[in-house]
Amino acid sequence: xxxxxxxxxxxxxxxxxxxxxxxxxxxxxxxxxxxxxxxxxxxxxxxxxxxxxxxxxxxxxxxxxxxxxxxxxxxxxxxxxxxxxxxxxxxxxxxxxxxxxxxxxxxxxxxxxxxxxxxxxxxxxxxxxxxxxxxxxxxxxxxxxxxxxxxxxxxxxxxxxxxxxxxxxxxxxxxxxxxxxxxxxxxxxxxxxxxxxxxxxxxxxxxxxxxxxxxxxxxxxxxxxxxxxxxxxxxxxxxxxxxxxxxxxxxxxxxxxxxxxxxxxxxxxxxxxxxxxxxxxxxxxxxxxxxxxxxxxxxxxxxxxxxxxxxxxxxxxxxxxxxxxxxxxxxxxxxxxxxxxxxxxxxxxxxxxxxxxxxxxxxxxxxxxxxxxxxxxxxxxxxxxxxxxxxxxxxxxxxxxxxxxxxxxxxxxxxxxxxxxxxxxxxxxxxxxxxxxxxxxxxxxxxxxxxxxxxxxxxxxxxxxxxxxxxxxxxxxxxxxxxxxxxxxxxxxxxxxxxxxxxxxxxxxxxxxxxx
Length: 516
Prior knowledge:
By secondary structure, this protein is an alpha/beta fold. Helix content is 57%, strand content 8%. It is built from 23 helices and nine strands. Helix 19 links the parallel strand 3 (392-396) and strand 4.
C-alpha cells in the first residue's frame, strides 16, 4: 500500500510542461552517446556518471519530460515500500504500514520523486541497503548489503555517510565480534570501490564553489522538511518521534527500530554539515536518504502511544510482557493484543490521511513549475517570440545556454556569438566559448545582440565568475543599451543595441565583495 500511494502521488502532476536547469542538464546529457558522456565525465559531473548512463538507456525509449522523471517516481515508490518493510521487520506490520504511508505523503519525498535527478534513486538504494543491513545483523549474508550500498555510492558519493549511521546502529545493538567483522570487511570494500570516484570528483570540486557553510537555521529547516512543513504536522510528528526513541537500546545483540532509524536521520546530515564548516559541501538533497528514518521513528512512537492508551483503557499499567510488543498477558503468560489490531491500524491510517489532507496545499503547489528555481520551457517560449533566424545571441553566464540545448527549436537559425564548439563535441555541459580577446572582437562587429541572462547579473547584483563572463557583462554595460525584453523568474531575454555615440550611462552598481 505505501508503494502504491507513493506511486500515485509521484505520477500526479508529473508533466509540468517544463523542466528546470538541473533537470535540463540530466536531459541533454542523457541524450548524448555513451562515448560523449564518458568524455564529459573526465571534466565535470563525474559524481552523476552512473545516473547519466542509466538515463541514456531510459531516454532512448522516448526523450521526454515525463520519461525523464519516471525513474525517480519508481524509486520513490520502492523507497516507501522498503520503509514499510523495515518497520514490519523491526517492530510489527502496522508500524511498517504507518511508516511507509508517512514517507509517501511527506512533501519532501514527493518533491524529489518528481525531479529528473539521481536523488530519489540514491534514497531507494540507501533504504534498500539499510534493509539488507538489518538482515545481515540478524544472521544473513553481508555481500548483498555491500553490493547495493556500493552501487548507491556510485550514484552519489555522499551515500557513503550511511556507513557511519550503520556503525552507530551496531554500537547501540552491541552485537558480537562476528557481526562487527562482517560489517567492517563490507564497509572497507565499499570505501575502496568508491576511491576512484572520490579522486576524480575531488578535482571537480569547483562545481560546488557556490555553496556556503550550513548554519543552525539550515539544520532546523532540514528537520522541518523531514517531519512536515506545516506547524501542526511538524509538532505532532516531533512529539511521536521523541516517544519512539524510548526503545532505542534493546537486549544485547538486538537491533531496534529506533536504533536503526535515529542514526539514519541524524548521522549523515550532521557529518556533512560539520565537514561543510571547513569546505562547504552541504545541500539537503545530498542527504535525502536520511528521510527514510524519520517516519520510522514517528511510527514507533505512535505504536507506543497506541499501546499505552489500550493499557489505560483496560486498567492495566504493567510493563508489556514482550520487549517491543505492547500487550496484556492472558492467564498462562500468553500475551494478547491490548487494542484490536484492525482498529489500531485503521486509526493510524486515518491520522496519516488527515495529515495528507492538511498538507494538500503544499503538495499541490509543488506541482507548479514556479516552485522550481526556473522554468526553461517558459524561457524558450519567450525566446521563440523574440528571436528571428540570423539574430545574434549572447548567453550570460554560459550556463544559460542550457535553454538552447534543452529546447533547440526556439533558437533554430540564430547566431551564438560566443560559442566555439558545442557541448557534446567539447565534452562540457554548456559548450566551449571564445577567449576574452576574440569575444571582444566578435561583439565589436555587432550593432545589436539578444541576451539570455540571469537578470541579477545584468542588474549588477551578482558578479559573473571568470574573465570571459566578466567581459560579456562589461561590454554590455559600457557599449550597449538595453531595450525591450521579457522576464521569466530569474531569467531575462532582452535586446541590447549599440548607441549611435557616447556611452549610454553608468554601469549598474557593483555587487558586494563577498559575492564575487
